[in-house]
Design brief:
The protein has helices spanning about 10-30, 45-50, 55-60, 85-95, 120-125, 165-180, 195-210, 220-230, 240-255, 295-305, 310-325, 345-355, and strands at about 1-10, 35-40, 65-70, 100-105, 130-135, 145-150, 155, 185-190, 215-220, 235-240, 265, 275, 330, 340. By secondary structure, it is α/β, with parallel strands linked by helices.
Length: about 350
């Protein structure tokens, strides 16, 4: 299994190094061979090659079976030409790999329940939601769009459009993800107001015929936003369009209270999937061995599960993370009363010990 690894900037190299050690040990334990090739992206690529996404990086990603990314960006590159900012590298590689689905699990480890923003009686029921967001269509890309002026008044407009093929393929990804979890899928739309949502709903229902083992329900987006904070335990997998998914995936993430814990995956039809922590390059703690590597380690678990169908191996990593948290080990971002403060390296080593 060939993996292209892009550590990127800031804490990227530190957290990726811990992730790769975990991957190596999993490979040894289960008899898998993971071939790792490193490539440049973001600020470090600008420094070395003058662009945030060099051609050789795109080539390396396309010839891999999966891609692992640390994080990009930092103050050093904040004032350069917007056309070659580090973040452009990220958008560029998502586009090159035609990644149309973003999978963002937001799970609250019981060991970290004090970090959660919700009331203890709500937290008690558990939070383990996966938001599957359509990434390349909808109102962010729909045409026509623009700005204008009429009768002395300015206006702006965008088009929310989804084609059947776009809905079908994202629905399939979501049903497959639900199959790997608790087999419940909630499709979120605004079908009471939007025509595009009515088509969305119709097609999701059609796709559901191929997944009789997955329970499907529908929810309007305003209600979904409320239900996520009122009772997140009711959700397993949520599938939704680009705009609603942008908002709901952040909402689901923030209620867990720990950005350093959350992994993500972006997948397409045939190209390799891209796996990355949801946090940024944390320049404020870069190089200080303070970063939490668990989001990256959990991103590797997602890679094993979704790109390589190695469910058992993924679960081993997730259990090792849980054990490490149960033992009280904490990086600064998740530190709580009675926790044992450790650095990035020590956290990675503890996960390996618990594998
Ligand atoms: P950030 O996620 O980098 O940091 C926000 C806060 O969370 C900081 O206090 C940071 O120290 C902390 N934090 C983040 N990850 C952590 C971890 N693993 N362990 C411990 N603490 C952690 O967001 P920001 O400060 O808004 O952005 C910093 C840079 O990252 C910017 O250049 C931004 O453009 C970039 N960024 C990149 C990505 C990405 O690569 N996917 C995502 C978001 C932001």
């Amino acid at each position: 299994m060939k993996i292209c690894v892009m550590p990127g900037d800031g804490i990227g190299p530190e957290i990726v190094a811990q992730g790769l050690k975990v991957l190596e040990v999993v490979g040894e334990k289960f008899g898998h061979k993971f071939e790792v090739e490193e490539a440049l992206i973001g600020g470090v690529a600008i420094d070395e090659k003058g662009v945030p996404l060099p051609d050789e990086t795109v080539k390396a990603c396309k010839s891999a079976d999966a891609v692992l990314l640390g994080a990009v960006g930092g103050p050093k590159w904040d004032n350069i030409d917007p056309a070659i900012r580090p973040e452009r590298g990220l958008l560029g590689i998502r586009k090159e790999l035609a990644l149309f689905a973003n999978l963002r699990p937001a799970a609250l480890f019981p060991q970290l329940k004090d970090a959660c923003f919700l009331r203890p009686d709500i937290v008690e029921k558990g939070i383990d939601v996966m938001v599957v967001r359509e990434l390349t269509g909808g109102i962010y890309f729909g045409e026509p769009k623009g700005e204008g002026e009429e009768n002395g008044e300015r206006y702006g407009y965008n088009t929310m459009i989804y084609r059947e093929s776009e809905i079908r393929r994202i629905a399939k990804i979501a049903f497959e993800a639900a199959r790997k979890r608790n087999k419940r899928l909630c499709s979120v739309d605004k079908a009471n107001v939007l025509d595009v949502s009515r088509v969305w709903r119709e097609i999701v229902i059609e796709v559901s015929k191929d997944y009789p083992d997955v329970e499907l329900n529908h929810m309007y987006v305003d209600n979904a936003a409320m239900q996520l904070v009122r009772d997140p335990s009711q959700f397993d997998v949520i599938v939704t369009g680009n705009l609603f998914g942008d908002i709901l995936s952040d909402e689901a993430a923030v209620i867990t209270g720990s950005i350093g814990m959350l992994p993500s995956a972006s997948v397409g039809a045939s190209n390799p999937g891209l796996f990355e922590p949801i946090h940024g390059s944390a320049p404020d703690i870069a190089g200080e061995d303070k970063a939490n590597p668990l989001a990256t380690i959990l991103s590797i678990a997602m890679m094993l599960r979704y790109s390589f169908d190695l469910d058992k191996e993924a679960s081993y990593i997730e259990s090792a993370v849980e054990k490490t948290l149960s033992a009280g080990l904490r990086t600064g971002d998740i530190m709580d009363e009675g926790g044992n403060l450790v650095g990035c390296k020590a956290m990675g080593e503890a996960v390996i010990k618990n594998l």
